[in-house]
Structure formats: structure tokens, C-alpha cells
Specification:
8 helices, 222 residues, 0% strand, 76% helix, mainly alpha
Length: 222
């Protein structure tokens, strides 16, 4: 892969793709009991995604340049298969490892969202899958790989930003997101299939959020 020279839309796209989610993740909500701030953040993520897609159009590049090849049953199947690996194998192993390393568990933080409507949690999981995969894997990974000539460097940069954006939640969250991001990035580097990545990410997040909420509600005293 021959390194390239960044254009203005590419530079702006990278700022949106890498900087936007990091800024959103660092924001503290003044009213954690309110639906307003979390809902607004979902629409901000979607706005960042639309902005990055606009940069692709400005670059005069096809959607395939960020791994979008249209709707495909095979892509959905690959994504569902990876989600199964996350839900049944990787996430439980991460919880065990974080507990043994005393880095904290992400589950209690997810349980803190239990007061929010289940419909919203499902919506948030779907948005996370669409937005974060488009921003980090579809755009940032492909463009950094093209500019640097190295998919390894592109992976290291995007995974690091993806994980460190969660620092407000503690080092346990950073570690979990680093592992998850690395797996998603490796999968994308192999398949170059954005829909498969979106499907895997969204299904995993929806299941994790709904499971945490339901467990927290069942544990509440009557």
C-alpha cells in the first residue's frame, strides 16, 4: 500500500471520526436520571456519522471505500456470528479477567442505566454499532491505512482512541474497549465489510445494555 497525501475533506473526516466520539465520551451528564442528555448524545453520534459520510462524498470516493457494499445476508450472518462470539465467549472472559486484575467491572456502570427505558437502551446500542463502526473502522481505519501505508498503524491508532475515550469510566472500561476494538478492527481488516461490523457491534451492545438493565431491575427490593 502506497502512502498518500491527505486532502482537506480527509483531514476533516479524521477529526470528526476520532475527535468527535472522544469529546462526547468525556462529557459528564449533570442529570444522570434524565433521558434528555443520553438521547441528545445519540443524535450527536449520528450527526458525526452523517458528517463523515459527507466527507466521503466530498472526497468523491465510493461507499465501498469505507467498507459499505450494500445490504447483504452474508454480511448480516458474519456480524451475527461475531456477536455470538462476543456475547458468549469474549465478554464473560473480559469480566473474569478484569475482576482478577482488580481493574473494575463495566457491568455496574451499565446497570446504572437501568432506569432508562428499554426501548432507549436498544436504540442506543443500535446507534453505537452504526456510528462507532462507521467512524472508527469504516472511515478512520481505512483513511489512516491509506495515508500511512500500514493497516497495523491504522489499527493501533483507532483502537487506542476508541479505548481511551472511555477513560472516564475507569481503566477496566479502557481495557475492555481495547480488546473489543482490536477484535472488531482485525475483523474489519479481514473482511472490509462495514455492515458485518455494524451488526456485530450493535447486537453485542443491545444485548449487554438490556441484560444489565433487566438484571439491575430484578435485584431492586420491592
Amino acid at each position: 500500500m502506497t502512502p498518500g497525501t491527505p486532502t482537506l475533506p480527509t483531514l476533516l473526516g479524521l477529526v470528526l471520526a476520532l475527535g468527535g466520539p472522544a469529546v462526547l465520551a468525556s462529557r459528564a451528564h449533570p442529570r444522570p436520571d434524565s433521558l434528555g442528555a443520553p438521547l441528545a448524545d445519540q443524535f450527536r453520534l449520528l450527526a458525526l456519522t452523517v458528517g463523515v459520510i459527507a466527507m466521503v462524498v466530498w472526497e468523491r470516493r465510493p461507499a465501498a471505500s469505507i467498507g459499505w457494499h450494500g445490504l447483504s445476508g452474508l454480511s448480516l450472518a458474519w456480524g451475527a456470528g461475531l456477536a455470538f462470539v462476543f456475547i458468549r465467549l469474549l465478554v464473560p472472559l473480559e469480566r473474569l479477567a478484569l475482576h482478577r486484575l482488580d481493574l473494575g467491572d463495566v457491568s455496574p456502570r451499565l446497570s446504572g442505566l437501568a432506569h432508562l427505558p428499554l426501548g432507549f437502551l436498544a436504540f442506543a446500542g443500535l446507534v453505537a454499532g452504526v456510528a462507532e463502526e462507521t467512524l472508527f473502522r469504516g472511515y478512520a481505519f481505512t483513511r489512516i491505512a491509506e495515508l500511512s501505508g500500514s493497516e497495523v498503524l491504522a489499527g493501533l491508532v483507532t483502537v487506542a482512541v476508541f479505548a481511551l475515550a472511555q477513560l472516564r469510566l475507569g481503566w477496566g472500561a479502557v481495557a475492555a474497549f481495547a480488546v473489543n476494538g482490536a477484535v472488531l478492527t482485525a475483523f474489519f481488516a479481514w473482511r472490509h465489510d462495514l455492515l458485518a461490523n455494524i451488526t456485530a457491534h450493535a447486537l453485542t451492545d443491545v444485548v449487554a445494555l438490556l441484560d444489565a438493565a433487566v438484571r439491575a431491575r430484578r435485584s431492586r427490593p420491592d
